[in-house]
Amino acid sequence: xxxxxxxxxxxxxxxxxxxxxxxxxxxxxxxxxxxxxxxxxxxxxxxxxxxxxxxxxxxxxxxxxxxxxxxxxxxxxxxxxxxxxxxxxxxxxxxxxxxxxxxxxxxxxxxxxxxxxxxxxxxxxxxxxxxxxxxxxxxxxxxxxxxxxxxxxxxxxx
Length: 158
Known about the structure:
Layout: H1 2-11, H2 16-21, H3 23-29, H4 35-38, H5 43-50, H6 59-79, H7 82-87, H8 103-114, H9 122-132, H10 143-154
Keywords: Metal-binding, Zinc
Binding site for Zn(2+): 138, 142
Organism: Magnetofaba australis IT-1
């Protein structure tokens, strides 16, 4: 979940194709998004990452990942897991939507920001919710909609 939220933050303002093409580079640069390791990054690491052409070199986004790693540690201590926190906001089943935010993504964003997270606006959070299966807003008739519903039905919420 931490990796996905970080990648959503890096994607903000860019094409997903760009992020997906660089995904393995991001994983290497951020120690497979092990937030315990990333939380220990220093200014030297920021400088190193700003020189890494394999990732998106945006100081604010890089520093946000490090900050969010520190916040993730706090969240796990408080909530038990990242999954337990995020699934608390699972909306009621919905039909197809063409939206960039929802009340739930706005609520998550506000709560994360209150806890000190960065680059977690409501649009970024909604994309994260879609990718993690918290919502299934695929249109009726979409080949994936039923597959996602079946996976969601089998999933045990934390």
